[in-house]
Structures are given as C-alpha cells and as structure tokens.
C-alpha cells in the first residue's frame, strides 16, 4: 500500500517532529510540511534547514487543509491544541501525537475529536536528552520501536495508514493498549528519569563541588537528567499514578539494600547485585 | 626522577591490575611482572597475552622479593592478603591498592604493615562495568583521575614514587584524605551503583518482561548494574556509613518529587528537573 499525506503539519518543531518531517520527505510520504511553534527563530531555522516548507505562529493557518497533523509539543498542551484547531480541520484528516505518555490522555484526545477527523496515539522510542532541531535527522526512527495505542473507537483505515507511516520511516511498530503503555514506559523510562534527576540533586544537596569527581558511571547514570524539564514535567504528571506506585516498589528495593548494609549482610547484597546484573544482561543480547 | 620497580606483583589480575601491568611495561617502569589469582585459567591467559611474565597460585612465591605489590582483588580481601604476605615481604618494598574505597580501610592496612614496608592507597578512576583482562589496555589510565590517599604516617619517599608511577601511566593525580575520598566517591560512584542495581530490580519486581521495552535512556542509567557483584558488594559494605547517610538524602529528593506529583505541582517539578539539569550540565563542560 502506498501512502501520501499531501499537506503535513508539525505542531512543535523539535527533535522528534523535525526528524519525522525529514524522514517523511526523504521517503516521499508527503508533498509539503508546515510548522507551528512558539518561537519564530526556531521555525525560521527549521525552514532554512529544509525541515519545513512554511511556518506560522497562527495555529489555524498551519492546520487548515492539512491531511496529517503531528502533535510534537510537550504532552501537557495536546488537549488545548486539539481544542483550538478542531474548528479548522478538514474531514478525513488524521491527527497523531508522538508523546511519551498515552494512557488516559489518548481517551481524552479521542473524546474531543471532531466528526470525520481521526486520532491515533503513537510513541516513537527515539527521544533522548537532546530536544532541538539541531539533532534532528531522517534516520532517527530506523530500527527503533514505535508503539501505537489504538482504542476500541480507533478508525481502522487511519490506523493502517499511520502504522505504515511509521514502518516506512524505519520503525518496528507494536500495537499496545494505551494504559498498558503507561505502565510499561512508566517503569522503563519515566521512573529512570525521576531517579536520574533525584540523583543529581542529591549531589547538589551534599556538596555540588563533588560533581567534578564524577566518572563515566555517574555520567551514564545521569545523562537523562539533561532532558528537557518542560517535556518531562508534563510526562511525569500525566503518568503520576503509575509513577507513585513504581516509586513505592523502587523504595522497597532500596530498603532491602539499606537493611542488609546496616547489618553488613555481604552475601545478601551480592545476591541482589547479581539478580540485577542478570536481568540487565538481557538488554545487551537483544 | 626516574623510577623502576624491578619485580612487580599483581594480586588479582583483572581489568585494573592487568591494565596497570601493561602500562608499566609499556613505559618501562618495571623489569618483570608476576601474577597471583584464584583462577589458574585466567592467570594462564594473562601470561599468554603478555600481561604477566609468570604466575602462581601461591601468594608467597609471587610476593617474595617484590619491589611493588599491587592489590587489585575485591577490596574485601585486602587485609587478609596483607596479613598473609607480611612475613615474606622485602624491606623497602611498596604495597599499593587500587580499590574504590579508602577511608578506614587505608588505616587498617597501614596498621598491619610490617616494619620497613610501605603502603600507599590509590584509586584510579578508570573502572567500568567490565572487570576482566579482555578489556585491559595500557592506555586505560591516560587522562583519567587517580586519587592517592596518604595519611600522617605515610612514607614520603614511597608516596613520591607512587605519585610518579600514576603520572607516568597517564593519570592526573590528586592527593586526598582517605575519609574525604569515601565521602565523595560514596556520592558520585557508590550511591549510583546502588541506585542502578535497585532500578533494574524494580523492573524485575514489577514484570521482568518489561525490560525488553527499555530504550537508550534505561540502558545508560543502568549500565553500571552490569558491574561485578563481588567487587561492589565489598565496596558498599566498606563505605556503608556514608552510603546510609547518602541514601537518606536521596530518599529526601525522591520524597519531594512524590509530594509534588501527588498534588500535580507542575512548576515545582519543573524547577527540580531544571536544577538537576543545570548541575549535570557542568560535567559536559569539563
């Protein structure tokens, strides 16, 4: 099946939005790309770099007549954007988002979709601590997982097109229930961010000068603390129920180690480290 | 000043011990290198790779007549080894260790040093999740920090020689109080290990199948959970007092985020993330 989203609009031209634009252009999946954002300087640079053909600070201008609208702002403003653009949307157009939370947000967006416009939630696993267009590249999604989270109400034709879109740009697509998505990514992505930010702030709390003694281990462990505070604030707030539960489990793991440390229970500590190491080893072999 | 440790003995031929041997040989800092270890297969391979000239499973044979003895086993057996080899040590010989904890261990080792034998505690910041001789290389210490932890009793002549040794193999040497060392490295190295192991075990606790959804962020954050459980068991037990204190501070940071999450205090969460990001940024600029 061939797909072409004639006019594609990117709402929030950052790492993911810009990379998707570049990838779609490279694979011939659209005719023109239009950008919306808050900072004109960024949009102008995106145009100069050939990521978008035109831009506007007016959402209406960017979205009317669009065949595909990509929400790639921080997740906290998706609902507001959808409400704002609803009156101008063309019948048959498709909205996707590329946010790192799905869950109830997917149902909330779905609930306000105008008649004849279709929404598909997607999450390309290609984010990083980088968030700007300077790191955008068309190959970003190649070999990366992309989770698509349809619901019972999802339009099957649009789902098929969006599935194909992500495959064409190189992703391995997996369909998943929106709530399950947030449970899983809460554990393997959102919780690690909270931990990395907290670990860096622990050094700040003790003595911020100690940071200069950090070696490669600390750098790796806290690299994701360089991620955009705005993007991650929205993500953790949306997924807070899973996160609060996950934090309890994580604190339970710390508690075990604390007790064993207090009593110098050397073998028990080794067993805990060994169990973690065995599980972590599975990742290297995939 | 020129230095040459005629006969050098490496007790525990792993990543650090083997790399130091290779570096010393390359820089002409010794005449011959002898290895002791628990596993003959590993020692044989070290000999075949040209890391050591000879080996024995008998500590006495390896250490007698040595000019330099390098303790590079897990830190938990340093004291036992020193006790065992004390009767055979040559007058004027120097013992160094390359362990990741110093603190009271330095004073404990110092206290059992035989007359005329000198001990210097050192910590090359060049460890990784790798721990075997296959990753050993003479350049491992080039550009890396090496902390040396003298005490009031440290022999100044030996200190000068060991300082020079680490500089000759490419390290940036810094002298530090042994207790201060453990406070700092507890924060920037030992605590991150405990956290990384606990994070991986959290996934194991929730659903170990979720690990396959982990992206680059999770991989980086938990890379150090691949580190040797034996080495790290000893390190965290020796530094447990600092670690228990550090864990309290870390849990305090988690607690702040939890409270803000419960109340969806979006700006407060962003501020916390921003503070961490600012501090973490300092590392990239050094």
Task: Break the fold down into its secondary structure elements and pairings.
Two copies of one chain form a homodimer.
Chain A: E1 5-11, H1 15-26, E2 30-36, H2 40-48, E3 54-56, H3 59-63, E4 68-71, H4 78-85, E5 94-97, H5 103-111, E6 118-124, E7 145-148, H6 156-168, E8 172-175, H7 178-207, H8 216-221, H9 229-238, H10 240-262, H11 266-284
Parallel strand pairs in A: 1-2, 1-4, 2-3, 4-5, 5-6, 7-8
Antiparallel strand pairs in A: 6-7
Helix pairs in contact in A: 7-10
Number of strands of chain A: 8
* Widest sheet, order of strands of chain A: 3-2-1-4-5-6-7-8
Cα-to-Cα separation, first versus last residue of chain A: 30 Å
Biggest β-sheet description of chain A: 8 strands, mixed
* CATH H-level homologous superfamily name of the largest domain in chain A: NAD(P)-binding Rossmann-like Domain
Largest interface (CB within 8 Å) is between: A-B, 89 and 89 residues
Oligomer state of the chains in this structure: homodimer
Write the CATH architecture name of the largest domain in chain A. Answer: 3-Layer(aba) Sandwich
- Topology-level CATH name of the largest domain in chain A: Rossmann fold
Order of helices and strands of chain A: EHEHEHEHEHEEHEHHHHH
Helix content of chain A: 40-55%
- Helix/strand-derived category of chain A reads alpha/beta
């Amino acid at each position: 099946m061939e797909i072409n989203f004639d006019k594609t609009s990117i709402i929030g031209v950052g790492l993911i939005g810009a990379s998707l634009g570049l990838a779609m252009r490279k694979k011939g999946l659209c005719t023109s790309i239009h950008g919306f954002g808050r900072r004109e300087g960024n949009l102008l640079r995106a145009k100069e770099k050939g990521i978008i053909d035109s831009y506007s600070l007016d959402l209406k201008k960017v979205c009317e007549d669009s065949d595909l609208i990509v929400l790639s702002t921080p997740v906290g403003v998706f609902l507001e954007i959808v409400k704002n653009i609803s009156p101008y949307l063309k019948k048959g157009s498709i909205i996707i988002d590329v946010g790192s939370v799905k869950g109830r947000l997917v149902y909330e967006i779905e609930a306000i979709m105008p008649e004849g416009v279709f929404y598909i939630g997607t999450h390309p696993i290609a984010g990083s601590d980088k968030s700007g267009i300077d790191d955008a590249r068309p190959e970003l999604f190649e070999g990366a997982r992309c989770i698509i989270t349809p619901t019972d109400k999802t339009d099957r034709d649009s789902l098929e097109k969006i599935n194909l879109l992500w495959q064409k740009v190189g992703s391995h697509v997996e369909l998943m229930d929106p709530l399950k998505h947030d449970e899983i990514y809460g554990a393997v992505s959102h919780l690690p961010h909270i931990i990395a930010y907290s670990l860096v702030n622990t050094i700040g709390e003790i003595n911020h000068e100690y940071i200069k003694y950090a070696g490669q281990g600390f750098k790796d462990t806290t690299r994701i603390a360089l991620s955009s505070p705005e993007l991650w604030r929205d993500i953790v707030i949306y997924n807070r129920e899973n996160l609060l539960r996950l934090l309890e489990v994580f604190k339970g793991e710390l508690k075990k180690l604390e007790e064993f440390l207090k009593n110098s229970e050397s073998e028990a500590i080794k067993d805990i480290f060994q169990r973690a190491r065995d599980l972590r080893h599975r990742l290297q072999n995939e």
